[in-house]
Each structure stands twice: as structure tokens, then as C-alpha cells.
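Morning. Coffee machine broken again, so started the prediction first thing and wrote up yesterday's gels while waiting. Chain of 130 residues, entered below exactly as on the submission form.
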Amino acid sequence: MNSECISIFFSIVITLFFFALCYFFAQILPGFSTTIRVSEWGVEVWEGIVPVARIRYEDILEIRPVTFKEMLPWHNRQAINWYRAGGKFYVPKAVLVQKRKGIIKFVVISPEDVDAFIREVKRKMSSEKQ
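Came back before lunch.
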């Protein structure tokens, strides 16, 4: 009986350690494999070779910076509906893209330089309208 309890305890500890290790690597590795592109037709987010999000310029209603605190659902109830496209869980500042149509209306992207990314997208959006 006692050896069974010890065996169950160690199984739980090993499982928790495995999940913690996976979470740790999931936070480190996406930064190396996530690619965010501002192309001639829109914004693309890739995880390795898989496209995670593609947003056309004409579908973008609003694009703005958001802080980590704004992304937390207990500080901002609307954040529950936001889709995080690639990147790490914790970033001090990210980009919120509000789409005009589609099932997913809000997409959070975490580029390296948030302000430069927003300027580039807005520049491409204004040149597309002309």
C-alpha cells in the first residue's frame, strides 16, 4: 500500500516536471520559429512552415499597440475574444489587429519592434487605398 502511494506520487511529480519543461521550451522556441511578414497584400504570421494568420490590408479595421496587462482577461474582458497568433505568452507590448470580417475579429501579434511594425502596416494600408 505504501509503495503504491510513493509510486503514484513520483508519477505525478514526473508528469508535472514534464509539463513545466514543455511550457518552458514553448516560451523559448516560438521566438525562434515565429515569422511575421508585412507583404504587399497583408500581414502574415508563420510558425515554422505553417501559416497561423493571414490578414489582408482591406480587412484591417484598426491596428494599435497593447500592453501585457491589456491582454489579461481579468483586466480587460474583451481580451477573452482575442486570438494570439504565434509568439510568446509574455511580451511587454504587442499589436492588436481588429478585422472587419471573419470568425476571429481580433488578432494579437508580437513583433520585435511594435511601433515600427504598426507604422509599416499603416503605410502599406494608405498606399493600398490610393
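The first strand starts at residue 34 and ends at 38. Going to sketch it on the whiteboard this afternoon.
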